[in-house]
Structures are given as structure tokens and as C-alpha cells.
């Protein structure tokens, strides 16, 4: 037997056999507790056989089965009451031993009952959180939903590119959180601090605990400015800017207007990042402004990307390359920004050649637009719901967690291999809404997300290359090619970006109106993850 001793009086084990019972007795155990429901698998030795062997060996036997993925307060209290009455060493088992260990840990802790309980708890009040709440309420207006979000303002982040290009004002991209929050939801103005999926509970930063029947994670990702030495200290001055921050986008436009000559560098870090086209958008709009004012010949523009290609979907590369050539941009692939010296206006890059050799190169700049490295927030990355890279581990089609069937994720935090864009959220929200409600009613999740994402690449003021694609780079155009050919620059696409998309965001997506976003449905019904899968997942995490 593979016995793990937690204390001198309590040990856990994976599934035991009838023969193992006598071995346990010889080791001094006086009680065996089974935390595994009968008939979980075909090769399982059920509790009645183990009980008969235990009694034959003079051992106590207690059957306290735990339901798949749901260790409740009642389970913990019943388990604690049982072991408090026992004398002598106890051996508890389930399939892998994880459930028994979790029960013991929870029973020994002094965790208080949650202050509140909701059917659906959504972590994050950004685009994903608000959109999925609206989609759920469209289907069930009286659904009990809580949103966990500490911020008082909500931002239309796709608009920051146009702020940096002198097209939008900051005010056009910002509204109060109250104005976009559905009136029916309960808003907790704090952040999540700890996830306990086995107990269906979360702890908030203010110390409050919440329980849920369904959890939706939409925290977004973290912009890791600190990953590049010297960057954080010089943002907003010394010619260093980024459209990835609300407060810095106006500085981008200020630099574009003031630069008459010199070196302008635009960077892109390794994937994944939100809106992979945004670093290029900033560059093209800047170049167009300099071109219109007759200054471009005096400015050396470089696009330093850590990637090996100009854009990830080949169909759009020819159109983008034409603008690289038109503006005389130096395309420098596999150039990763590693440090910034703001006062001396020097940027350091790790440059990898075709043979895989990496060297260091320092480049002077007069303007430096940085797209920072991006990663999962620590609260997610260190939680049991994350994959090895730190993102929430979901099915790419259903957006349902691979181990905990009552947890879903959408937006930038999900590990689905799609482009991290607001357009992706617009298609994901109805899928998650349908699948959450199906799960709550005991039905399988059959709404399907096809990986759709959209990146309107602003190649000049008045023209856009409208990239729309799904999983595997498959082109997924919304409009017929005779109306909008996304692989070519289009004035109609610019009108879509400037006039229509903000309305589509504020008044359609965040209101639960699913125009051109209704989900498709799978023919094969997926099976929810079992508690044994959850146990195996936890073992891997440890």
C-alpha cells in the first residue's frame, strides 16, 4: 500500500484492496474511512467488500463518500465529527488519496462559513465579466450573480490605439463601473485572493468568503512592466510610451506630434499578448502622421518584434508588408526588448539569428513605444485552477474547466489558443452563458466557441486591414468579401473601427445583445470532469 502519514494518528491512501485491510491491521490501524463513492470505476473494490474485511480484522469502518468535485461544509463537519470520536490510528482512502487528505486539512482548519452564497460568481468586471453577466441575464433575468471587481472605472481598451493616434480622446474610452454593471448583480468592490474549487468557495482580499454553484473567471491578464529592467521608471517620459495604458496613450500622440527627426522604435514581446496587432497599429498610425506632414524621410522607424513573422496569420501578411515597405520601416524579427535606459534613450535587445544564436544589441531612440510582456495574474497562476503556464485550464470549445466542471473562463485569462481580443470576448460570452446555465440545470455544455478573434489593423488614418480568424488561423470573415475583403486595406473597415465598434462594445456586447455572436452547438455532448480527474490534476500541480 502507498500510505502517506499526515500525523501519528491519521494517514491517507489510494484505493485499497481486500488483502490490504489485513496489512493495515498489522500496522496498527484501528479504523478505515472510505471517502470514495461506490461504482466510480469498473475496477473499483466497493465499500461493502472493504467493510466486511475490516470487521473480520477487528477494525472499525466508516463510509463517508465525497461527491465529484464538491467537498461541502457538511462533508467536512461529518468527517471531523467522525475522527473526533475515534481512538487509535486512522487510515482514510479514496481513489488517489487526495480527497481524504483535503477533508482532513479542511477539518483541521478553522475556516468559517462563507458570509454569502451566490449561484454564479464572476471574477472580474472587465469586458469578459460584464459581457457574460449580461448574456446570462438575457437568458435568465432573475439569476443570482455576483461580480468581484475592485476598480471604479471600466475601459474600452481597443480605443487606446486611436487615442495614441490622435483620433479618440481619453474620455471616449472610459465609463464608470456603475454605469456598465447590470443592476441585478451583486457587486463586491474588492479582488479575489484565494480559490478553493474542491469546496466551491473563494476568499476575497477583504477577508470575506463566498460560495458558488458556478464560477466564471474573467480577470484578464497582467501587463508585466517590471519584467524589463528600467522600463517602469521611464514610462511617460524620456520618449518612452505605450498605448497599452490609459494614462500613456495621450503621451504617444504627443510624441508623434513633436518628433521631427530621429529614431522611433516600436516593440512587441513574445506571445501571448492581448491584441497581437496593437504594437503595429501604433506604428502605422504614427508613420501615417509623419508621412502626411512630410517628416517620415527624417525619421528612422524600426519594428522590433520577438516573433519570427510580421503577423501570425499568413493571409494578412502581404497587405501589412506593403505598408512596412511604404513607410520604410525596418522590420527586425526575433528582437526581444530586455532593458531600457530612459535618461540616455537606449534600448537593449536580445537578437536571435536564423541559426538560433542570440546576441545583445543596444539601439538609440528618440521615441520608444513598448508593448510589455504579459502573464497571468499571480492569484490565478498560483491557484489550483491554473495550468502549468498560469492560465485557467479550460476546454477550447466549451470554455469549461478541464477538471472542475462548474468553473468556466473567458477573455485573456483562459488558456484557449485564440487571439486575446475584445472581439473574442464578444463571441465567448454567449458560449459561457449557455454552458453555465446548462451545467446548473444538470445538462452537458454543448455551446461551442470556434476561436474567433478580430484584429482591425489600422495601417493608415482612414484604412484598416480587418483580420478575422479562429483556431488554427482559419479565416472567419463576418462580411462577404465583396463588401469587406479583410486581407486588403479598406475604408469601410476604418468606419467600422471608428464608428461602429465602440457602439458594438458599449451598447451591444455589454448589454447582452448577441448580434452576429450567437453560439453554435456541438453534436457530441461532452462529459463533465470527474472528481478523480480533479485529484490527479491536484497531484500534478504539487
User: Structural class of the helices, strands and pairings?
Assistant: alpha/beta
Principal-axes geometry comes out as elongated
- The average pLDDT value, as a whole number, equals 92
Stretches where pLDDT is under 50 for at least 5 consecutive residues are 524-542
- Approximate helicity band: 25-40%
Largest sheet: 7 strands, mixed
Roughly how many Å apart are the termini? 21 Å
Specify the CATH architecture of the largest domain: 3-Layer(bba) Sandwich
Write down the domain tally. Answer: 3
Count all strands and give the number.
28
Radius of gyration: 27 Å
SS strand fraction: 15-25%
| Count of individual helical segments | 15
CATH class category of the largest domain: Alpha Beta
Cofactor: FAD
Pfam families: BLH_phosphatase (PF04273), Pyr_redox_2 (PF07992)
GO molecular function: FAD binding; hydrolase activity; quinone binding; sulfide:quinone oxidoreductase activity
Domain FAD/NAD(P)-binding: 119-242
Amino acid at each position: 500500500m502507498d500510505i502517506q502519514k499526515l500525523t501519528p494518528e491519521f494517514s491517507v491512501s489510494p484505493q485499497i484492496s481486500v488483502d490490504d485491510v489485513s496489512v493495515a491491521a498489522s500496522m496498527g490501524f484501528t479504523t478505515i474511512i472510505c471517502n470514495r463513492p461506490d461504482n466510480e470505476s469498473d475496477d473499483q473494490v466497493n465499500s461493502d467488500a472493504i467493510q466486511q474485511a475490516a470487521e473480520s480484522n477487528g477494525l472499525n469502518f466508516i463510509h463517508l463518500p465525497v461527491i465529484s468535485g464538491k467537498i461541502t461544509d457538511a462533508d467536512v463537519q461529518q468527517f471531523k465529527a467522525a475522527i473526533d470520536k475515534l481512538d487509535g490510528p486512522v487510515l482514510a482512502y479514496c481513489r488517489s488519496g487526495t480527497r481524504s487528505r483535503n477533508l482532513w486539512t479542511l477539518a483541521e482548519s478553522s475556516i468559517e462559513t462563507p458570509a454569502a452564497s451566490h449561484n454564479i460568481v464572476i471574477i472580474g468586471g472587465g469586458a469578459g465579466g460584464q459581457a457574460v453577466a449580461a448574456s446570462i441575464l438575457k437568458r435568465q433575468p432573475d439569476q443570482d450573480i455576483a461580480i468581484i471587481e475592485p476598480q471604479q472605472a471600466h475601459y474600452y481598451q481597443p480605443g487606446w490605439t486611436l487615442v495614441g493616434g490622435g483620433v479618440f480622446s481619453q474620455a471616449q474610452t472610459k465609463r464608470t463601473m456603475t454605469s456598465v454593471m447590470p443592476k441585478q448583480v451583486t457587486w463586491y468592490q474588492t479582488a479575489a485572493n484565494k480559490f478553493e474549487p474542491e469546496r466551491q468557495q473563494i476568499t476575497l482580499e477583504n477577508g470575506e468568503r463566498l460560495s458558488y454553484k458556478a464560477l466564471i473567471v474573467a480577470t484578464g491578464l497582467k501587463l508585466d512592466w517590471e519584467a524589463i529592467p528600467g522600463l517602469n521608471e521611464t514610462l511617460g517620459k524620456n520618449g518612452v510610451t505605450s498605448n497599452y495604458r490609459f494614462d500613456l496613450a495621450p503621451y504617444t500622440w504627443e510624441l508623434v506630434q513633436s518628433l521631427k527627426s530621429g529614431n522611433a522604435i516600436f516593440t512587441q514581446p513574445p506571445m501571448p499578448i492581448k491584441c497581437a496587432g496593437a504594437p503595429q497599429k501604433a506604428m502605422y498610425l504614427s508613420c501615417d502622421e509623419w508621412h502626411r506632414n512630410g517628416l517620415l524621410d527624417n525619421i528612422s522607424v524600426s519594428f522590433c518584434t520577438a516573433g519570427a513573422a510580421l503577423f501570425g496569420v499568413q493571409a494578412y501578411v502581404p497587405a501589412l508588408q506593403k505598408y512596412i515597405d511604404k513607410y520604410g520601416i525596418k522590420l527586425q524579427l526575433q528582437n526581444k526588448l530586455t532593458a531600457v535606459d530612459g535618461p540616455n534613450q537606449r534600448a537593449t535587445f536580445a537578437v536571435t539569428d536564423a541559426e538560433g544564436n542570440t546576441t545583445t544589441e543596444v539601439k538609440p531612440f528618440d521615441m520608444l513605444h513598448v508593448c510589455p510582456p504579459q502573464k497571468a495574474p499571480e492569484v490565478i497562476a498560483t491557484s489550483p485552477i491554473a495550468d502549468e503556464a498560469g492560465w485557467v485550464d479550460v476546454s477550447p470549445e466549451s470554455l469549461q474547466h478541464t477538471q472542475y466542471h462548474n468553473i468556466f473562463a473567458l477573455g485573456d485569462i483562459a488558456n484557449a489558443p485564440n487571439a486575446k481580443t475584445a472581439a473574442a470576448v464578444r463571441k465567448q460570452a454567449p458560449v459561457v452563458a449557455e454552458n453555465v446555465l446548462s451545467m446548473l440545470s444538470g445538462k452537458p455544455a454543448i455551446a461551442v466557441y470556434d476561436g474567433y478573434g478580430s484584429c482591425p489593423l489600422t495601417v493608415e488614418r482612414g484604412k484598416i486591414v480587418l483580420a478575422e480568424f479562429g483556431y488554427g488561423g482559419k479565416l472567419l470573415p463576418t462580411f462577404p468579401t465583396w463588401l469587406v475583403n479583410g486581407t486588403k486595406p479598406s475604408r469601410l473597415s476604418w468606419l467600422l473601427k471608428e464608428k461602429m465598434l465602440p457602439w458594438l462594445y458599449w451598447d451591444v456586447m455589454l448589454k447582452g445583445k448577441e448580434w452576429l455572436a450567437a453560439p453554435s452547438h456541438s453534436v457530441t455532448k461532452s462529459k463533465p470532469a470527474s472528481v478523480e480527474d480533479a485529484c490527479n490534476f491536484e497531484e500534478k500541480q504539487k
